[in-house]
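Sequence in, structure out. Go.
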Amino acid sequence: REFTDEPKKDCYGKWTECNPQNVASFSAVAYFFGRELHRELGVPIGLIHTSWGGTPAEAWTRKEVLQSDPELAIYLKRFEEKIAAAEPGNLPLNQGSPSSLYNAMIAPLISFGIRGAIWYQGESNRNEYKEYEKLMPGLALNWRAMWDVGDFPMYYVQIAPFDYGPTGANSAFLREAQLKASTAISNFGMACIMDTGEKDCIHPYCGYHFPGMVG
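Output:
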């Protein structure tokens, strides 16, 4: 996990064979998706896991993409306001800053030939559902343009029906934005988990439960 203010060309990582000893520390969503692909296609499947929980989609989107749309440029404007309010020489950059994770955790991977991507996010953009309707397709088109291997498929998970309480926007608005985004571009599919999520735990149940966990 790393964030930077400019695109990087390299990052730390290593290939590991999937086995009972190391799979527990890997992404469960990616594991089951990769296993299904392997069973259906009968070929080895390589998965690159790059994620940071609790981060917004604009952090994973290239700066130029945000700049090109007046509705999405709001994220850059807010960041510029934070910079203006910060102490001289102190860049208020973190994992939630626009493009910070794209720069450090997506840009270095573009040299790898990929066949598709899966995405599981949305909770951090719950209160900006109108922007998300354009942000998510913009992110997908951004990644496709950078890899330049055609309109590779990208699938994402609609957020679970977690009860956020009385503050902020109702999560149904973000789910609606995700649904609308699914028809905005080709090869862009959404998985609905309304029947598997829990209102008291933001993570769908997978054999154990941490009461009050909202990470």
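Check: The CA atoms of residues 54 and 124 lie 6 Å apart. Residues 207-215 have pLDDT under 50 and may be disordered.
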